[in-house]
Design a protein that fits this description.
7 strands; Thiol Ester Dehydrase, Chain A; 7-stranded antiparallel sheet; about 140 residues; alpha+beta
Amino acid sequence: MNLNIETIKELIPHRDPFLFVDNCEIIIPGEHGKSEKLFSKDEYFFKGHFPNNPIVPGVIIVEAMAQTAGIVVSYKLREYKEKSVLFMSVNKAKFRRPILPNDKVTFDVKFLNSVRDVYKFEGTCYKENIKVSEAEFSAMITYK
């Protein structure tokens, strides 16, 4: 299932300038998905990270992985309209190559396990099929 930006906005609360997913492919609902993001040269964070040498901050890369996982889980739980996905932890983050202005990247996230409403995922970021970063992270799903 391929999701466009409008469908993504129905699943997670993030909006511009803090939505870092352009589209998402749900491979296995709740378990595996891939998203893409084109980091345009006009992204707000490039002004300060770093002047004359802009690169995407590592926290933005991890956030994009977490947003992708949030979409994957929320797609499976879409019958629950009043829910929140709350980022809890990040572990084993590695940044191997920089992501530069106008780079298009792919985020691949896979479910590792869950305990009650806490979901743990692993994520990998690729640029032109080359691994540029990876991390494990967890989030809690809350229902209203």
